[in-house]
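1st attempt posting a full record on here, be nice pls
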Amino acid sequence: MISNVDLIVIGTGSAAQTVAYTCCEAGWSVAVIDSRPFGGTCQLRGCDPKKVLVGVSELVDWSHRMQAKGVSADLSINWSDLIQFKRTFTDPAPEQNERSFAEAGILTRHGRAHFSDRTTVEVGGDTLVGRYVVIAGGARRASLAISGDDELTTSTQFLELDRLPRRITFVGGGYIAFEFAHIAARAGAQVRVLHRGKRPLPAFDPDLVGMLVEATTELGVEVVLNTEVVAIERQADRLFVRARTATQEQTFETDMAVHAAGRVPEIDDLALEVAGVARTTAGVTVNGYLQSVSNPMVYAAGDAVASGGFPLTPVAGMQGGVVASNLLEGNHRTPSYAGIPSVVYTTPPLARVGLSEESAHEQGRRFAVHKGDTSDWYTSRRVGLRHTGFKTLVEEGTGRILGAHLLSPHAEEVINLFGLAIRTGLKADDLTDMVYAYPTGASDLGSML
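the predicted structure (as C-alpha coordinates):
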Protein backbone atom coordinates (compact mmCIF):
# COMPACT_ATOMS: atom_id res chain seq x y z
CA MET A 1 0.00 0.00 0.00
CA ILE A 2 1.26 3.49 -0.87
CA SER A 3 0.42 6.46 1.38
CA ASN A 4 1.28 10.07 0.63
CA VAL A 5 1.79 12.40 3.60
CA ASP A 6 3.34 15.76 4.31
CA LEU A 7 5.71 14.37 6.94
CA ILE A 8 7.19 10.98 7.81
CA VAL A 9 8.71 10.70 11.28
CA ILE A 10 10.96 7.73 12.04
CA GLY A 11 10.71 7.08 15.78
CA THR A 12 8.15 7.71 18.51
CA GLY A 13 10.25 9.10 21.36
CA SER A 14 10.51 12.62 22.74
CA ALA A 15 11.90 14.27 19.59
CA ALA A 16 9.61 12.34 17.27
CA GLN A 17 6.46 13.06 19.24
CA THR A 18 7.23 16.78 19.46
CA VAL A 19 7.66 17.03 15.70
CA ALA A 20 4.69 14.81 14.84
CA TYR A 21 2.12 16.46 17.09
CA THR A 22 3.25 20.02 16.32
CA CYS A 23 3.04 19.52 12.56
CA CYS A 24 -0.22 17.61 12.84
CA GLU A 25 -1.78 20.44 14.86
CA ALA A 26 -0.70 22.82 12.08
CA GLY A 27 -2.76 20.82 9.58
CA TRP A 28 -0.08 18.59 8.08
CA SER A 29 -0.69 14.92 7.34
CA VAL A 30 1.82 12.94 9.41
CA ALA A 31 2.96 9.32 9.69
CA VAL A 32 5.14 7.83 12.45
CA ILE A 33 7.13 4.60 12.25
CA ASP A 34 8.72 2.55 15.02
CA SER A 35 10.02 -1.02 15.16
CA ARG A 36 9.64 -1.06 18.94
CA PRO A 37 6.61 -0.33 21.15
CA PHE A 38 5.55 3.29 20.72
CA GLY A 39 7.05 5.69 23.25
CA GLY A 40 10.80 5.76 22.80
CA THR A 41 13.71 4.96 25.08
CA CYS A 42 13.11 7.44 27.90
CA GLN A 43 9.51 6.52 28.59
CA LEU A 44 9.81 2.77 28.12
CA ARG A 45 13.44 1.68 28.52
CA GLY A 46 15.37 4.55 30.11
CA CYS A 47 14.77 7.64 32.23
CA ASP A 48 11.27 6.97 33.54
CA PRO A 49 11.51 3.30 34.56
CA LYS A 50 15.05 3.80 35.83
CA LYS A 51 13.95 6.64 38.12
CA VAL A 52 11.20 4.41 39.57
CA LEU A 53 13.90 1.94 40.61
CA VAL A 54 16.13 4.75 41.85
CA GLY A 55 13.34 6.10 44.06
CA VAL A 56 12.93 2.82 45.93
CA SER A 57 16.71 2.36 46.11
CA GLU A 58 17.08 5.84 47.67
CA LEU A 59 14.39 5.07 50.24
CA VAL A 60 16.13 1.88 51.34
CA ASP A 61 19.51 3.58 51.46
CA TRP A 62 18.12 6.50 53.47
CA SER A 63 16.65 4.11 56.02
CA HIS A 64 20.05 2.42 56.39
CA ARG A 65 21.86 5.73 56.79
CA MET A 66 19.46 6.79 59.53
CA GLN A 67 19.88 3.71 61.69
CA ALA A 68 20.49 4.83 65.30
CA LYS A 69 19.46 8.33 64.27
CA GLY A 70 15.78 7.77 64.95
CA VAL A 71 15.09 4.90 62.55
CA SER A 72 15.12 1.25 63.58
CA ALA A 73 13.26 -0.55 60.76
CA ASP A 74 15.67 -2.37 58.42
CA LEU A 75 14.12 -1.88 54.99
CA SER A 76 15.04 -4.05 52.00
CA ILE A 77 14.15 -4.19 48.31
CA ASN A 78 11.76 -6.83 47.04
CA TRP A 79 12.99 -6.94 43.45
CA SER A 80 9.98 -8.70 41.97
CA ASP A 81 7.56 -6.23 43.55
CA LEU A 82 9.73 -3.32 42.40
CA ILE A 83 9.71 -4.51 38.78
CA GLN A 84 5.94 -5.01 38.92
CA PHE A 85 5.60 -1.44 40.21
CA LYS A 86 7.85 -0.21 37.40
CA ARG A 87 5.65 -1.97 34.87
CA THR A 88 2.61 0.02 35.99
CA PHE A 89 4.36 2.98 34.34
CA THR A 90 5.76 1.29 31.23
CA ASP A 91 3.28 -1.43 30.25
CA PRO A 92 0.30 0.85 29.49
CA ALA A 93 2.39 3.47 27.68
CA PRO A 94 2.72 1.98 24.15
CA GLU A 95 -1.04 1.48 23.76
CA GLN A 96 -1.71 4.95 25.18
CA ASN A 97 0.79 6.48 22.75
CA GLU A 98 -0.69 4.62 19.79
CA ARG A 99 -4.20 5.70 20.78
CA SER A 100 -3.07 9.32 21.12
CA PHE A 101 -1.51 9.24 17.65
CA ALA A 102 -4.70 7.79 16.19
CA GLU A 103 -6.91 10.35 17.95
CA ALA A 104 -4.73 13.14 16.53
CA GLY A 105 -5.11 11.70 13.04
CA ILE A 106 -1.48 10.58 12.76
CA LEU A 107 -0.86 7.48 10.64
CA THR A 108 1.07 4.76 12.52
CA ARG A 109 3.26 1.98 11.18
CA HIS A 110 5.22 -0.72 13.01
CA GLY A 111 8.46 -2.16 11.64
CA ARG A 112 12.00 -1.28 10.60
CA ALA A 113 12.02 1.58 8.12
CA HIS A 114 14.40 2.14 5.24
CA PHE A 115 14.63 4.71 2.47
CA SER A 116 13.88 3.70 -1.12
CA ASP A 117 14.16 7.27 -2.48
CA ARG A 118 14.99 10.72 -1.14
CA THR A 119 11.66 11.05 0.73
CA THR A 120 10.17 7.58 0.24
CA VAL A 121 10.28 5.14 3.14
CA GLU A 122 9.45 1.44 3.11
CA VAL A 123 8.16 -0.31 6.22
CA GLY A 124 6.92 -3.87 6.09
CA GLY A 125 4.90 -4.10 2.88
CA ASP A 126 3.91 -0.43 2.92
CA THR A 127 5.39 2.53 1.09
CA LEU A 128 5.19 6.01 2.59
CA VAL A 129 5.92 9.02 0.37
CA GLY A 130 6.49 12.28 2.20
CA ARG A 131 7.27 15.87 1.39
CA TYR A 132 9.68 15.75 4.34
CA VAL A 133 11.20 13.06 6.54
CA VAL A 134 12.43 13.46 10.12
CA ILE A 135 14.87 10.87 11.47
CA ALA A 136 14.39 10.58 15.24
CA GLY A 137 14.80 6.87 15.89
CA GLY A 138 17.04 7.13 18.95
CA ALA A 139 20.07 5.02 19.79
CA ARG A 140 21.08 1.44 20.49
CA ARG A 141 23.90 -0.15 22.44
CA ALA A 142 27.32 0.15 20.84
CA SER A 143 28.88 -3.05 19.59
CA LEU A 144 32.01 -3.93 21.56
CA ALA A 145 33.34 -6.08 18.70
CA ILE A 146 34.48 -8.78 21.11
CA SER A 147 33.89 -12.50 21.33
CA GLY A 148 30.73 -13.20 23.30
CA ASP A 149 29.24 -9.74 22.78
CA ASP A 150 25.82 -11.40 22.45
CA GLU A 151 26.12 -12.71 26.02
CA LEU A 152 25.85 -9.16 27.36
CA THR A 153 22.56 -8.16 28.94
CA THR A 154 21.23 -4.84 27.64
CA SER A 155 19.98 -2.06 29.88
CA THR A 156 16.49 -2.73 28.49
CA GLN A 157 16.70 -6.36 29.58
CA PHE A 158 18.04 -5.35 33.00
CA LEU A 159 14.95 -3.23 33.59
CA GLU A 160 12.76 -6.27 32.86
CA LEU A 161 14.49 -8.77 35.17
CA ASP A 162 11.96 -10.68 37.26
CA ARG A 163 14.79 -11.92 39.46
CA LEU A 164 18.06 -10.15 40.26
CA PRO A 165 21.17 -12.34 39.82
CA ARG A 166 23.49 -12.73 42.79
CA ARG A 167 26.59 -11.47 40.93
CA ILE A 168 26.44 -8.71 38.30
CA THR A 169 29.29 -7.20 36.28
CA PHE A 170 28.80 -3.93 34.42
CA VAL A 171 30.99 -3.46 31.35
CA GLY A 172 31.66 0.27 31.11
CA GLY A 173 31.83 3.14 33.57
CA GLY A 174 29.19 5.65 32.48
CA TYR A 175 25.66 6.61 33.50
CA ILE A 176 24.14 3.16 33.10
CA ALA A 177 26.88 1.38 35.02
CA PHE A 178 26.80 3.65 38.06
CA GLU A 179 23.04 4.13 38.25
CA PHE A 180 22.26 0.44 37.88
CA ALA A 181 25.17 -0.56 40.14
CA HIS A 182 23.75 1.56 42.96
CA ILE A 183 20.30 0.04 42.47
CA ALA A 184 21.53 -3.56 42.21
CA ALA A 185 23.89 -3.31 45.19
CA ARG A 186 21.12 -1.94 47.40
CA ALA A 187 18.93 -4.80 46.23
CA GLY A 188 21.50 -7.27 47.57
CA ALA A 189 23.59 -8.16 44.52
CA GLN A 190 27.37 -8.43 44.46
CA VAL A 191 28.31 -5.79 41.91
CA ARG A 192 31.44 -5.04 39.91
CA VAL A 193 32.10 -2.22 37.41
CA LEU A 194 34.83 -2.70 34.80
CA HIS A 195 35.94 0.47 33.04
CA ARG A 196 38.71 0.71 30.48
CA GLY A 197 39.64 4.33 31.27
CA LYS A 198 41.57 5.80 34.17
CA ARG A 199 38.42 7.35 35.61
CA PRO A 200 34.73 6.68 35.08
CA LEU A 201 32.05 9.21 34.13
CA PRO A 202 34.52 11.29 32.07
CA ALA A 203 31.94 13.98 31.25
CA PHE A 204 31.72 14.96 34.92
CA ASP A 205 34.04 16.83 37.28
CA PRO A 206 36.93 14.50 38.22
CA ASP A 207 37.04 15.62 41.86
CA LEU A 208 33.37 14.89 42.41
CA VAL A 209 33.60 11.64 40.43
CA GLY A 210 36.36 10.61 42.84
CA MET A 211 34.03 11.26 45.77
CA LEU A 212 31.25 9.29 44.08
CA VAL A 213 33.61 6.36 43.49
CA GLU A 214 34.38 6.40 47.23
CA ALA A 215 30.68 6.33 48.04
CA THR A 216 30.13 3.56 45.48
CA THR A 217 32.97 1.48 46.90
CA GLU A 218 31.64 1.89 50.44
CA LEU A 219 28.32 0.59 49.15
CA GLY A 220 30.14 -2.64 48.33
CA VAL A 221 30.56 -2.14 44.58
CA GLU A 222 33.97 -3.09 43.19
CA VAL A 223 35.09 -0.39 40.74
CA VAL A 224 37.92 -1.66 38.53
CA LEU A 225 39.61 0.95 36.31
CA ASN A 226 42.11 0.77 33.42
CA THR A 227 40.63 -2.60 32.54
CA GLU A 228 39.37 -3.40 29.05
CA VAL A 229 36.96 -6.27 28.54
CA VAL A 230 38.16 -8.44 25.64
CA ALA A 231 35.77 -11.41 25.71
CA ILE A 232 32.67 -12.86 27.34
CA GLU A 233 32.55 -16.64 27.66
CA ARG A 234 29.76 -18.92 28.81
CA GLN A 235 30.55 -22.38 30.14
CA ALA A 236 27.33 -24.23 30.95
CA ASP A 237 25.58 -21.98 33.48
CA ARG A 238 28.74 -20.02 34.34
CA LEU A 239 29.69 -16.69 32.73
CA PHE A 240 33.25 -15.38 32.55
CA VAL A 241 34.37 -11.87 31.67
CA ARG A 242 37.90 -11.76 30.25
CA ALA A 243 39.65 -8.43 30.71
CA ARG A 244 43.07 -6.93 30.10
CA THR A 245 45.05 -4.30 31.95
CA ALA A 246 48.37 -2.78 30.93
CA THR A 247 50.26 -5.60 32.64
CA GLN A 248 48.03 -8.64 32.90
CA GLU A 249 44.84 -10.43 31.93
CA GLN A 250 42.11 -11.14 34.45
CA THR A 251 39.02 -13.31 34.47
CA PHE A 252 35.91 -12.42 36.46
CA GLU A 253 33.19 -14.99 37.06
CA THR A 254 29.72 -13.54 37.20
CA ASP A 255 26.07 -14.49 36.82
CA MET A 256 25.27 -11.59 34.50
CA ALA A 257 27.32 -9.14 32.46
CA VAL A 258 25.50 -5.91 31.59
CA HIS A 259 26.41 -3.72 28.61
CA ALA A 260 27.13 -0.22 29.92
CA ALA A 261 29.71 0.83 27.37
CA GLY A 262 27.86 3.49 25.45
CA ARG A 263 25.20 3.91 22.79
CA VAL A 264 25.24 4.84 19.10
CA PRO A 265 22.61 6.25 16.72
CA GLU A 266 20.26 3.55 15.43
CA ILE A 267 20.50 4.54 11.79
CA ASP A 268 22.72 1.89 10.19
CA ASP A 269 19.91 0.01 8.44
CA LEU A 270 17.91 3.02 7.22
CA ALA A 271 19.63 2.97 3.79
CA LEU A 272 20.56 6.63 4.22
CA GLU A 273 22.79 6.46 1.17
CA VAL A 274 19.73 5.77 -1.01
CA ALA A 275 18.21 9.03 0.21
CA GLY A 276 21.49 10.89 -0.15
CA VAL A 277 21.64 11.57 3.60
CA ALA A 278 25.18 12.13 4.84
CA ARG A 279 26.15 10.75 8.22
CA THR A 280 29.06 10.12 10.57
CA THR A 281 29.44 7.67 13.43
CA ALA A 282 27.86 10.35 15.64
CA GLY A 283 24.65 10.49 13.59
CA VAL A 284 23.02 12.29 10.67
CA THR A 285 25.10 15.27 9.54
CA VAL A 286 23.01 18.42 9.81
CA ASN A 287 23.32 22.18 9.52
CA GLY A 288 22.43 24.61 12.30
CA TYR A 289 18.71 24.14 11.57
CA LEU A 290 18.97 20.34 12.11
CA GLN A 291 18.48 19.85 8.38
CA SER A 292 20.48 17.24 6.49
CA VAL A 293 23.43 18.90 4.77
CA SER A 294 22.98 16.65 1.73
CA ASN A 295 19.21 16.19 1.43
CA PRO A 296 17.25 19.35 2.36
CA MET A 297 13.98 17.39 2.61
CA VAL A 298 15.33 15.42 5.60
CA TYR A 299 15.79 16.66 9.17
CA ALA A 300 17.03 14.82 12.25
CA ALA A 301 16.68 15.18 16.01
CA GLY A 302 17.50 13.41 19.24
CA ASP A 303 20.11 10.68 19.56
CA ALA A 304 20.06 10.11 15.79
CA VAL A 305 21.63 13.48 14.96
CA ALA A 306 25.26 14.59 15.07
CA SER A 307 24.42 17.98 16.55
CA GLY A 308 26.87 18.59 19.37
CA GLY A 309 24.10 18.46 21.96
CA PHE A 310 24.01 16.05 24.90
CA PRO A 311 22.13 12.79 24.19
CA LEU A 312 19.44 13.65 26.74
CA THR A 313 15.65 13.46 26.57
CA PRO A 314 15.07 17.19 27.21
CA VAL A 315 17.56 17.98 24.44
CA ALA A 316 15.72 15.64 22.07
CA GLY A 317 12.42 17.33 22.90
CA MET A 318 13.93 20.77 22.35
CA GLN A 319 15.42 19.69 19.03
CA GLY A 320 12.05 18.29 18.00
CA GLY A 321 10.50 21.69 18.62
CA VAL A 322 13.21 23.37 16.54
CA VAL A 323 12.70 20.95 13.66
CA ALA A 324 8.91 21.38 13.73
CA SER A 325 9.23 25.16 13.70
CA ASN A 326 11.64 25.07 10.77
CA LEU A 327 9.43 22.71 8.81
CA LEU A 328 6.35 24.85 9.30
CA GLU A 329 7.89 28.30 8.89
CA GLY A 330 11.13 27.75 7.01
CA ASN A 331 14.58 27.55 8.53
CA HIS A 332 14.80 30.21 11.23
CA ARG A 333 15.42 28.44 14.56
CA THR A 334 18.59 26.84 15.84
CA PRO A 335 18.97 24.85 19.05
CA SER A 336 20.69 26.38 22.07
CA TYR A 337 22.66 24.00 24.24
CA ALA A 338 23.62 26.56 26.86
CA GLY A 339 22.72 25.77 30.44
CA ILE A 340 21.41 22.23 29.91
CA PRO A 341 22.08 20.11 33.02
CA SER A 342 23.02 16.45 33.09
CA VAL A 343 22.56 14.13 36.08
CA VAL A 344 23.76 10.69 37.17
CA TYR A 345 21.03 9.28 39.43
CA THR A 346 23.21 7.63 42.04
CA THR A 347 22.91 8.24 45.78
CA PRO A 348 23.84 11.02 46.16
CA PRO A 349 23.16 12.22 42.60
CA LEU A 350 25.99 13.73 40.56
CA ALA A 351 25.05 16.75 38.42
CA ARG A 352 26.75 19.18 36.07
CA VAL A 353 25.89 22.14 33.88
CA GLY A 354 28.02 24.47 31.77
CA LEU A 355 31.78 24.28 31.45
CA SER A 356 34.20 22.03 33.27
CA GLU A 357 37.45 23.46 34.60
CA GLU A 358 39.32 21.84 31.73
CA SER A 359 37.05 23.19 29.00
CA ALA A 360 36.98 26.66 30.57
CA HIS A 361 40.80 26.74 30.51
CA GLU A 362 40.81 25.49 26.91
CA GLN A 363 38.55 28.40 25.96
CA GLY A 364 40.92 30.85 27.61
CA ARG A 365 38.35 31.98 30.19
CA ARG A 366 39.47 33.78 33.34
CA PHE A 367 37.47 32.50 36.26
CA ALA A 368 37.40 31.79 39.97
CA VAL A 369 36.83 28.27 41.24
CA HIS A 370 34.76 27.73 44.37
CA LYS A 371 34.78 24.17 45.65
CA GLY A 372 34.41 22.19 48.80
CA ASP A 373 33.60 19.00 50.64
CA THR A 374 30.08 19.47 52.02
CA SER A 375 29.75 16.27 54.02
CA ASP A 376 29.71 18.32 57.24
CA TRP A 377 27.09 20.77 55.95
CA TYR A 378 23.64 20.59 57.49
CA THR A 379 22.08 19.48 54.18
CA SER A 380 24.23 16.34 54.07
CA ARG A 381 24.41 15.57 57.79
CA ARG A 382 20.63 15.71 58.15
CA VAL A 383 20.25 12.75 55.77
CA GLY A 384 23.44 10.91 56.75
CA LEU A 385 25.37 11.36 53.48
CA ARG A 386 29.14 11.11 53.96
CA HIS A 387 30.44 11.91 50.46
CA THR A 388 29.16 15.20 49.05
CA GLY A 389 30.75 18.25 47.47
CA PHE A 390 30.50 21.02 44.88
CA LYS A 391 32.48 23.08 42.42
CA THR A 392 31.38 26.30 40.71
CA LEU A 393 33.15 28.42 38.09
CA VAL A 394 32.49 32.17 38.08
CA GLU A 395 33.93 34.36 35.33
CA GLU A 396 36.15 37.19 36.46
CA GLY A 397 34.96 40.64 35.47
CA THR A 398 31.43 39.67 34.45
CA GLY A 399 30.41 37.56 37.45
CA ARG A 400 28.68 35.14 35.12
CA ILE A 401 28.42 31.50 36.11
CA LEU A 402 30.39 29.38 33.66
CA GLY A 403 29.79 25.98 35.23
CA ALA A 404 28.41 24.20 38.27
CA HIS A 405 29.11 20.68 39.50
CA LEU A 406 27.29 19.06 42.41
CA LEU A 407 27.38 15.79 44.33
CA SER A 408 24.73 16.26 46.97
CA PRO A 409 21.18 15.55 48.06
CA HIS A 410 18.73 17.18 45.64
CA ALA A 411 21.56 17.95 43.20
CA GLU A 412 19.24 16.93 40.36
CA GLU A 413 16.95 19.83 41.31
CA VAL A 414 19.46 22.46 42.45
CA ILE A 415 21.48 22.10 39.23
CA ASN A 416 18.48 23.51 37.34
CA LEU A 417 18.93 26.86 39.10
CA PHE A 418 22.51 27.04 37.89
CA GLY A 419 21.33 26.03 34.42
CA LEU A 420 18.73 28.80 34.43
CA ALA A 421 21.40 31.30 35.41
CA ILE A 422 23.71 30.20 32.59
CA ARG A 423 20.94 30.15 30.00
CA THR A 424 19.54 33.56 30.91
CA GLY A 425 22.74 35.37 31.84
CA LEU A 426 22.06 35.72 35.55
CA LYS A 427 25.19 36.49 37.57
CA ALA A 428 26.50 34.90 40.72
CA ASP A 429 25.36 37.96 42.70
CA ASP A 430 21.82 37.46 41.39
CA LEU A 431 21.74 33.98 42.91
CA THR A 432 23.39 34.95 46.18
CA ASP A 433 21.01 37.91 46.62
CA MET A 434 18.00 35.60 46.32
CA VAL A 435 16.26 34.78 49.61
CA TYR A 436 15.59 31.04 49.50
CA ALA A 437 13.25 28.84 51.49
CA TYR A 438 15.26 27.29 54.30
CA PRO A 439 16.42 24.66 54.93
CA THR A 440 16.50 23.45 51.34
CA GLY A 441 19.12 22.30 48.88
CA ALA A 442 18.80 25.63 47.05
CA SER A 443 19.58 27.58 50.23
CA ASP A 444 23.17 26.30 49.91
CA LEU A 445 23.73 28.24 46.66
CA GLY A 446 25.15 31.30 48.38
CA SER A 447 27.82 29.21 50.07
CA MET A 448 28.69 27.57 46.76
CA LEU A 449 29.34 30.92 45.09
